[in-house]
């Protein structure tokens, strides 16, 4: 199998607070993990690429100081949305690519973030 | 810059074959093309992946022409539970960046 979990599945927070989302590959090691954001009825947009033990690579327009990514182990990456605002409300989805694989990404179930 | 295009939506009846095409110019020459299925409020689920020609698994087939500027996902005999959004995923030429297609909303009717 290739199972990826995310926690929490949904979160509601007040504006100005920080929220941490965890992404875990449960039955395989993932050198690379990806973080995507999806707005209603839109496609997934890549936010950043996270490699174990090194700094994440952020896509253009994604603030690295606002979306902190840590990939501390081969099975865990975290995304922290700092000082969240209502416009950060979205569906955040992570994916993991097997260490030994060339290309296949396996996705987590997503985290629904609502900022009040 | 790589760009992908898919039909916005498609309707089909149960039992029919459905073909969804993704146009993708300027993609990496040595990377796979991958298709995913997504239900509302869920993460994308892997369907099939290919590099060129034809690939078939237990749920779908994938056709990729020699120029790799498009790919076609074929779902044989769809059922109501296949109603979902289908995405192609490619990587742009000369970049590590993965790009999702615009997505095709498939509605299967009884």
State the gist of this model:
Chain A has 116 residues and is mainly beta. Helices cover 0% and strands 55% of the residues of chain A. In chain A, the strands form 2 sheets. In chain A, strands 2, 4, 5, 6, 9, 10 and 11 form a 7-stranded mixed β-sheet that branches. In chain A, strands 1-3-8-7 form a 4-stranded antiparallel β-sheet, with no helix packed on it.
Describe the structure.
The complex is a heterodimer of chains A (116) and B (110). Chain A is built from no helices and 11 strands. Chain A has 116 residues and is mainly beta. In chain A, a hairpin with a 6-residue loop joins strand 9 and strand 10. Chain A is globular and about 40 Å long. The model of chain A has no long low-confidence stretch (mean pLDDT 92). Chain B is mainly beta and 110 residues long. Chain B has no helices and 11 strands. The model of chain B has no long low-confidence stretch (mean pLDDT 92). Chains A and B meet through strand 5, strand 9 and strand 10 of A and strand 5, strand 9 and strand 10 of B.
């Amino acid at each position: 199998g290739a199972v990826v979990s995310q926690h929490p599945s949904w979160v509601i927070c007040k504006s100005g607070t920080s929220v941490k989302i965890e992404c875990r590959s449960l039955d395989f090691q993932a050198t690379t993990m990806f973080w995507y954001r999806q707005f209603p009825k839109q496609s997934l947009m890549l936010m950043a690429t996270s490699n174990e033990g090194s700094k994440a690579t952020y896509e253009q327009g994604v603030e690295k100081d606002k979306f902190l990514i840590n990939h501390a182990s081969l099975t865990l990456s975290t995304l922290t949305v700092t000082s969240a605002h209502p416009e950060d409300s979205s569906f955040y989805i992570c994916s993991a690519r097997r260490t030994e694989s060339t290309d296949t990404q396996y996705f987590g179930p997503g985290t629904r973030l609502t900022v009040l | 810059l790589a760009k992908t295009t898919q039909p916005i939506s498609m309707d089909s009846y149960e039992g029919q074959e459905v073909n969804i095409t993704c146009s993708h110019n300027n993609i990496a020459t040595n990377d796979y093309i991958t298709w995913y299925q997504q239900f509302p409020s869920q993460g994308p689920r892997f369907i099939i992946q290919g590099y060129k020609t034809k690939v078939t698994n237990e749920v779908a087939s994938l056709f990729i022409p020699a120029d790799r500027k498009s790919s076609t996902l074929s779902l044989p005999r769809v059922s109501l539970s296949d109603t979902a959004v289908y995405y192609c995923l490619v990587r742009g030429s000369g970049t590590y960046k993965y790009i999702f297609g615009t997505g095709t909303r498939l509605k299967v009717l009884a």
